[in-house]
Design goal:
mainly beta, 55% strand, five-stranded antiparallel sheet
Length: 111
C-alpha cells in the first residue's frame, strides 16, 4: 500500500524556439518510478507552438523505505532527436519519505 500522496508539482515545458515542438511522450522513468504518479499531462502527443507551453503534473507517494527517492520525467521530442542527443530531455524528480508509514515530502523538481 502506498503512502500519503503529496500535492502534485507542475512541470511546464516552454517552447521559445523558431518552430513548433512535437512531444511524442512524457513518461516516468528510473528506479523509483512507482513512488511518483503523473496526475495530468498536456504534453504527451502535443504539438507546442512557438511561443507556447504544455504541462505535466506529478505527485509523490512513498511506498518503500524512508529516505530520498528519485525518478525522471522523460520527454521524447523531435528537437532532441534532430540534434542527435538522444530521444528527449529529463527532469529529475526527488521525494523524501519520512520515518512514519505513509509520510513523505516532494522535495525537488530539477530540470
Amino acid at each position: 500500500a502506498g503512502g500519503t500522496t503529496t500535492v502534485a508539482r507542475l512541470v511546464t515545458v516552454t517552447n521559445n524556439g523558431p518552430a513548433a515542438l512535437h512531444i511524442a511522450s512524457a513518461a516516468l522513468t528510473g528506479a523509483n518510478t512507482p513512488e511518483f504518479t503523473i496526475t495530468n499531462n498536456t504534453c504527451a502527443g502535443a504539438t507546442v507552438p512557438s511561443p507556447g507551453t504544455c504541462t505535466v503534473s506529478v505527485a509523490y507517494s512513498p511506498i518503500t523505505a524512508a529516505g530520498a527517492h528519485t525518478a525522471r520525467l522523460t520527454f521524447v521530442d523531435d528537437v532532441a532527436q534532430a540534434a542527435g542527443i538522444g530521444s528527449g530531455e529529463d527532469v529529475v524528480l526527488t521525494g523524501n519519505a519520512g520515518n512514519s508509514p505513509g509520510a513523505g515530502e516532494f522535495t525537488a523538481v530539477t530540470p
